[in-house]
Design brief:
This protein is mostly helical. The protein is built from four helices and no strands. Helix 3 packs antiparallel against helix 4. The protein is elongated.
């Protein structure tokens, strides 16, 4: 829907600068939320190991994040004796 509109806006100096600012703000917001979620979720050795292994699998083998969430849920349930 916005496909043809964005390139036209990018040609405008003012609109292009605005879109650049929106991109930077979105990235900053995602970074802050990621840090906050990391602080809340990574609280002990098992969660630290899970985060490191998941990050490595994501970066090295480009594993689909849905599989990482499923695997983390299973490992978390096993760690807490559920299931």
């Amino acid at each position: 829907m916005s496909g043809p509109l964005i390139p036209r806006l990018r040609r405008s100096r003012i609109a292009g600068a605005f879109l650049d600012g929106v991109n930077v703000a979105a990235l900053a917001l995602m970074a802050v939320v990621s840090v906050q979620l990391g602080k809340a979720a990574i609280v002990d050795v098992p969660t630290t190991l899970l985060a490191v292994v998941s990050g490595a699998a994501l970066l090295r083998w480009r594993v689909n994040s849905a599989w990482l969430v499923l695997g983390g849920g299973i490992l978390g349930a096993l760690d807490h004796g559920i299931g």
